[in-house]
Amino acid sequence: MKLLPFILFLTIAVSAQTPKPNLTEIITYAASVDRFMKVNKTPRYFGDVSLEEKSHWKRFKTRKLIDDAEEVYKKAVVWSKTGKIVSAGFTLTSPSGDWAHYVTYYFRTDGSLAKIHAELNTFYGEVSIIRDRFYDPSGQLLQSTQKVLDLQTRKPKKPSGDFMDQDVNVYKKVSELPFSKLL
């Protein structure tokens, strides 16, 4: 019976030694990934080529090929560092061109989501919605921020009645990306 308190103490001590990352650490990590993406010239390109509701992701060899592909409204650029996915940047658009949603996912080297940065630019309400979400390694949301800006002036603005928001998909692990089997 004396072993149980020792195990409990050991569990608490180990938990105390592995603190959750703070926002500053996540922001610093995301900034380092941003710098890496600017100098890395070999990302991988993916696009959803399905014309139906069920997605069908395909790998493209170059940015030009994916940009020239007609009717590909979901595109992704993926960056790896030392064999690990560190970022996936999505460009999502409507066939009419009324909105574009740019969503960047920052992944830790263990494959867990650290941050999502999203910018929705839409003619519905003439706004840009900029969102940042920060996650701990278990996928728990630590903090979320949102700014609404005028699409033209980039000054703060309240969305009007015709504003149509777009959801941000949350992929808590690299393995949850819709094209993960192609990685």
Could you explain how this protein is built, in words?
- The protein contains 3 helices and 8 strands.
- The longest helix is centred in the N-terminal third of the chain and has 17 residues, at 23-39.
- It has 183 residues and is α+β, with helices and mostly antiparallel strands.
- It has helices at 3-17, 23-39, 63-68, and strands spanning 44-48, 57-60, 74-81, 84-93, 99-107, 113-122, 127-135, 141-150.
- Helix content is 21%, strand content 36%.
- The protein is globular and about 45 Å long.
- Strands 2-1-3-4-5-6-7-8 form an 8-stranded antiparallel sheet.
- The protein has a domain at 74-182.
Gist?
The protein has 183 residues and is α+β, with helices and mostly antiparallel strands. The chain contains 3 helices and 8 strands; from the N terminus they run H-H-E-E-H-E-E-E-E-E-E. Mean pLDDT is 89; it is low at 1-16.
| Number of distinct beta strands | 8
Q: What is the SS-derived class?
A: alpha+beta
Q: What gap, in angstroms, lies between the N and C termini?
A: 50 Å
Q: Spatial order of the strands in the main sheet?
A: 2-1-3-4-5-6-7-8
Average pLDDT, rounded to a whole number, is 89
Strand coverage percent:
35-45%
The portion of residues assigned to helices is 10-25%
Q: Which H/E pattern describes the elements?
A: HHEEHEEEEEE
The number of helical runs is 3
Radius of gyration, in angstroms, nearest whole number: 20 Å
Based on Cα principal axes, name the global outline.
Answer: globular
